[in-house]
Amino acid sequence: MKNRPRQNAKDTRKKVLIYSGIVLFLIFALFPIFWIFLMSLKTDKEIIASIPKFFFRPTLENYEAILFGLKAAGTETSRPDFILYFKNSLIITSGAVIVSLLVGVPAAYALARFKFKFKEDIAFTFLSFRFAPEIAVIIPIFVIYRSLGLYNTYIGMILVYQLITLPLIVWIMRGYFEDIPDSIEQAARLDGYSWFSIFRKISLPLVKPGLASTAILSFIFAWNNFIFGLVLGAKETFPVTVGTLGFISYESVLWGQMAAASMVTILPEIIIAFFIQKYLVRGLSLGAVRG
Q1: What is the Cα gyration radius of the chain?
Q2: pLDDT tens digits for 50-74?
Q3: How far apart are CA 108 and CA 178, in angstroms?
Q4: What's domain 82-285's architecture?
Q5: Closest by alpha carbon to 173, among 148, 203, 150?
Q6: Any idea where the domains of the chain sit in the sequence?
Q7: CA–CA distance from 186 to each of 189, 201, 206, 207, 211 (Å)?
């Protein structure tokens, strides 16, 4: 009984240290985003001031400039067609993820359930697409796209983004399918279900949380890509990551508008993760504990 208060005090100190560490990590991770948000509400003079200002009169002029092309007297805007670039990113990223899901999920199921020659070699080939740096493959892809007429097209951009989304979906979803006990599918086979019916009616619903989390991760990786859009696109198909460079000119850098564009750019990822966070948490923990 005498040791209990001492043990409770020790547990309390341990919890305080753990929570303090979590708070410090969150501050370290989120402070850059918070600082960019503050920059988006400042004028350029306040941003480049020698002494950073934490207390100031916020303004929405930077957001008005990137969304509507408006500007206040005495300021400038590069009018970089931010809305067009934002729309391009939505089309390219969503299209790439949808195509990868349609192709990659059945492929992941086949790699998880069927036995055939060179199965592991094929799986490793998918994974190897993520090994090579993008800059190493972009030049031959550029030459091929110019000859096939895919340069500066939505179709071409969606296809090249498969190098980002497809390997990720195949390998993650393969692990989720392998976590499903074989006995469930074998019982369905005895009841006369075909492999496609088992995949559609049994296996796919069981991995739905994992499918949601994988789709989100693929969307984020594709949305944040820069090099493919820079080399294989032009003004008509530039994604928002490339379009943000329009705020940099030979005369000046529009820091406030660039910060506002950065805040708007991360909104789709936050919104998607917020609405399906339940599936995201379940998907990331799916298969962590196996009975």
Answers
A1: 24
A2: 777 778 888 888 888 888 876 654 4
A3: 9
A4: Orthogonal Bundle (1.10)
A5: 203
A6: 3-64, 82-285
A7: 5, 14, 15, 17, 22
